[in-house]
Automatic annotation (TrEMBL):
SUPFAM superfamilies assigned to the protein according to its UniProt record, in alphabetical order: Quinoprotein alcohol dehydrogenase-like
Every Pyrrolo-quinoline quinone repeat domain range: 125-373
Protein name as it appears in the record: Pyrrolo-quinoline quinone repeat domain-containing protein
Organism per entry: Paenibacillus albidus
């Protein structure tokens, strides 16, 4: 009987304990409400099958100390030419990753392919040429351009630049034709050279009270400077002895409402001004009191005979061949979110391309409809993007690479690289080459993206 009484007392004690509020006091505890709460209803995960690489190999990591755009791999004719971690150049079969040959040592991360040969630089600054088929050296030219920033092969001449310096080398023999160097205290940046109609053209940034753009024209045979013009952008086009170039109007005509672009026409050999075109439009007033120029606010580029001008709220198309002062555009489109986008100045598959200034994602505008399509679908920032044919490839900061169909915008496949780093994406034949985290991956593309 005593045990039964004790059991009843214990049971009552447990029940009473369960009825007491948690913690001290007499109030029942409640979940705390968040002081701030947000959600992204537009987020969508990219839903695509994950594919495994056909092969992968170690590749040299890009070195950006001397150059902001190192080249560690190029792909041509079903082959990949890559810089190995040991500083040697290797040729691979793109389909299998099989090594075909090796060349050199202590090579710089700078090379191009042209007409069956690879042209590259050594760390000591020598330009070399090797044959595509077997990697045998054709010639070497000592330039002392250890930090060369471009190699361009045009019409039998190899042009190599390093900052304000430029050299012209015979592509067949390796003989140095000429070398020039602009004053580094004044010309502190130079573009890739452009050869056209027996001249070579470069653009420079020139320092002074303000930094402005300058176009310089050199004789192709001797390297002699023929003329230069300050406040001129890179040529829109060079045709029939005329160089067309957009004027730089910053601090000359900063009217934020009545906007214009001026395109000067110069005699290619003498620099004589032959005429000037003006394309005008009206923009909305700047509410922040700051003048916004360039990019989507005012930027022109040519695609054949089509002159596209980004005009703030709109994108306008003009017939470049038939200029009429004050004429309205042939066609125009609303320029969506123009203050947050950077135009890339090109047309591909009847689309114009931009990058988002925040996510760095790729954006395409269909010329037929004016519809904008994004290829950064809410996951992570884009690190590298490329369009080959009808395939769009986006490497994200989470190590995923997504492939999309450009026409339908649907995701096709995903690759997990395991690294946040992405180098330039390459393609040859039906193989996509991904540089990521010190690895080179070969991905066989489906028929829909070939």
């Amino acid at each position: 009987m005593l045990m039964g009484e004790n059991f009843k007392k214990l049971s009552c004690t447990v029940c009473a304990a369960l009825m007491l509020p948690l913690g001290g006091g007499g109030e029942i505890a409640q979940a705390e409400e968040a002081a701030v709460r947000t959600s992204n209803i537009y987020y969508q995960q990219v839903d695509a099958p994950v594919v495994q690489p056909a092969w992968s190999l170690s590749i040299a990591r890009p070195k950006v100390v001397d150059n902001l755009e190192p080249v560690t791999a190029i792909a041509e004719n079903g082959k990949v030419f890559m810089m190995q971690p040991n500083g040697k150049l290797a040729a691979l079969k793109a389909a299998t990753g099989t090594k075909l040959w090796e060349f050199g040592s202590q090579l710089a991360q700078r090379m191009v392919y042209n007409n069956g040969s690879i042209y590259g630089m050594t760390s000591a600054g020598a330009l070399y040429k090797v044959k595509e088929e077997n990697g045998s050296k054709v010639w070497s030219a000592a330039l002392s351009y250890g930090a060369a920033d471009s190699i361009t092969v045009t019409g039998g001449t190899v042009y190599v630049t390093q900052g304000q310096k430029m050299a012209a080398v015979d592509a067949a023999t390796g003989k140095i034709k000429w070398r020039i160097a602009e004053d580094p205290n004044n010309y502190y940046y130079g573009s890739k050279p452009q050869e056209a109609e027996d001249v070579v053209v470069r653009n420079y940034a020139v320092s002074g009270a303000i930094t402005v753009s300058l176009v310089a024209v050199y004789d192709k045979t001797t390297g002699t400077k023929l003329w230069e013009a300050s406040r001129q952008q890179a040529p829109l086009v060079i045709k029939d002895g005329i160089l067309y170039s957009e004027r730089e109007l910053f601090m000359l005509d900063d009217d934020p409402v009545n906007r214009k672009i001026r395109i000067a026409a110069f005699n290619l050999r003498t620099g004589t001004l032959k005429g000037e075109r003006t394309y005008s439009w009206t923009d909305k007033a700047a509410t922040d009191g700051v003048y916004h120029g360039g990019g989507s606010y005012s930027f022109a580029f040519l695609n054949g005979n089509d002159l596209y001008i980004h005009q703030g709220q709109r994108l306008a198309l003009y017939d470049f061949r038939n200029y009429v002062s004050g004429a309205e555009p042939v066609k125009k489109w609303a320029q969506e979110s123009y203050d947050q986008r950077t135009p890339l100045g090109l047309v591909h598959q009847d689309r114009i391309y931009f990058t988002d200034e925040n996510s760095h994602g790729l954006i395409a505008m269909k010329l037929a409809t004016g519809q904008y399509v994004r290829f950064d679908q809410g996951e992570n920032d884009s690190v590298q993007s490329a369009v080959f044919g009808k395939g769009v490839y986006v490497g994200q900061s989470d190590g995923l690479l997504h492939a999309y169909d450009l026409m339908s915008t649907k995701p096709v496949f995903t690759v997990r690289t395991g690294s946040r780093e992405f180098g330039p994406l390459l393609k040859t034949g039906d193989m996509l080459l991904i540089q990521s985290g010190g690895k080179l991956f070969g991905i066989k593309l489906p028929a829909s993206l070939k």
